[in-house]
Structures are given as C-alpha cells and as structure tokens.
Amino acid sequence: MALESQVAIVTGATGIVGEGIARAFLQAGATVVAPIRSAGKEAALREALGSPPAERLHCPLDEYTTAEGAKALARWAALKFGAVDHIVACTGGMVPMAVLSAVTPSDFNAAMHDRVLGQVVLAQALAPLLREAQRSSYTVITGRLGVRCTMADGALFAIANAAVYGMVQALQAQLREKPQRVNELRIGAIVRRDSEAEHPHFPGKKSHPASLVAAEALRIAAGQQADDIVRLYLD
Ligand SMILES: NC(=O)c1ccc[n+]([C@@H]2O[C@H](COP(=O)([O-])OP(=O)(O)OC[C@H]3O[C@@H](n4cnc5c(N)ncnc54)[C@H](OP(=O)(O)O)[C@@H]3O)[C@@H](O)[C@H]2O)c1
C-alpha cells in the first residue's frame, strides 16, 4: 500500500473534501490524525471512515485554526509520533455569499480569519513536524475561484483563495532547500461527499465526488512532485 506505516495529518476531515482524503489515506495504509473542533463530531467521522481501528485513526479535539490551537495540535502529534510523513491542510468551508459591492468589513475579516489565517497558523505549527525526507509532503487544498471568479456572489471565495495561493508560495519558498515537498491541490469544481447526491449549499448544481479529489491528494503524497500547483479542473 502506498502509505503503509506512514503518518498523515488531515485537517478538515469532518468536511466534504477532507473526509474523502482521510478515507483514501487510511485505505492506502496510513495512520491518520484527523483533528476535530467539536467532540460531538468524532463518532460520525469514525463511522463515515468505516470505523478503522483506534490506532489507525486519531481524532484529537482541538480548535486548530487558531495560533494556539495549531500549536497544541503540533505538540500532541510530536509527543505521539515524533515526526509525521504527510500533512494535508483541507480547512475552510463556506464564506458568506455576496457580490464584491455587498461585502461587509466583518464578513471580509471572518473569511480572511477562517480561510486564510487558519492556513497560515497551521503551516507555521505543522510544517516543522514533517520528517526531513523527500517522501514527506505538505499539501494545501484550494479552490479555483481565486483564479477566475465564476460566481459573482463568490467574491469572498475569490479573495480568500487568492490569499491562500500566496501562502502556499511563501511556504514553498521557505522549504525550497529542504527535502520536504510542498504542493497546492487546486480544485476547479463543486465537490460533494461520495455518500451524497449534491453539495448541500449548491443544490441542483453539477458536483463531483470527493473520492476524485482524494485520489489526486494521495497521488501527490505518494509521489515525488514538489513546488507544484496541481490543477484538478473537473468542469
Ligand atoms: N467542496 C467543494 O465544492 C470545494 C470546491 C473547491 C475547493 N474546495 C476546497 O476544499 C477545502 C475544504 O472544503 P469543503 O467543501 O470540504 O468544506 P466543508 O465541508 O465546509 O468542511 C470544512 C472543514 O474545515 C473545518 N474548519 C476548520 N476551521 C474552520 C472554520 N474556521 N470555518 C469553517 N470550517 C472550518 C471544518 O470543521 P468543522 O466540521 O468543525 O466545522 C470542516 O472539517 C476548502 O479549502 C475549499 O476551498 C472545496
């Protein structure tokens, strides 16, 4: 199996895309750390992931998108595993939908906090945990709206996504002389859970199963590419 005996941290595993990635990594033999932000979500996540043995799926309770929470997660993982082989930062979720002229300062700040600062503090805390080896990988999951805003009311998605592209560039620059690989997986599509027919916020719109994204995330982790932007444009 591609990730046999390797340890991966997958953030956002209670969400649509992250759940698919956690499942694919478990199926590939990895031990998965899937931090959860509220205790009530652990049972459903374990069930959705096929109830893997406890030693293969760890769900520390942690508000990992704050600076303190991200550091606490890193301390927990360092104590438990020493170093980790892969990190997939798949954190974010929805933002208020509005055209640019209707974006309020508080919605802007919330989107930047939830979708951008959350990625920055995770990278700061977790990247140092990566085993110093070429097989180690850090993958950030993003969406295409920062390249072309195809939904007029997706202004905050466009702005926040573009900021995360910059965060990835900065992380790649910082680790460029190191063996650890940093990549962005940029999704151009609406993605749904495999178990559901559509995305709950975009009813009636064409969507693709999370397993398609997960297969690509697995290919990046198990492969050799570095410093890359992998575009998974499905529409
Ligand atoms: N689904 C799509 O159609 C799609 C398309 C293109 C790109 N993407 C990208 O894929 C990534 C994940 O998207 P998703 O659709 O899987 O999102 P989702 O279903 O809304 O899940 C978001 C995940 O992030 C976690 N999270 C952590 N901090 C958060 C915060 N401050 N606000 C909201 N959620 C937070 C959530 O935890 P809790 O469960 O505790 O809230 C959940 O696990 C995002 O970067 C997104 O841009 C998704």
TrEMBL record:
MF GO annotations: oxidoreductase activity
InterPro entries (UniProt xref): NAD(P)-bd_dom_sf (IPR036291), SDR_fam (IPR002347)
Keyword Transmembrane: no
Pfam families registered for this protein in UniProt: adh_short
Origin: domain of life: Eukaryota
Gene3D superfamilies linked: NAD(P)-binding Rossmann-like Domain
Keyword NAD among record annotations: no
Family to which this protein belongs: Belongs to the short-chain dehydrogenases/reductases (SDR) family.
Name recorded for this polypeptide: SDR family oxidoreductase
Source organism per UniProt: Micractinium conductrix
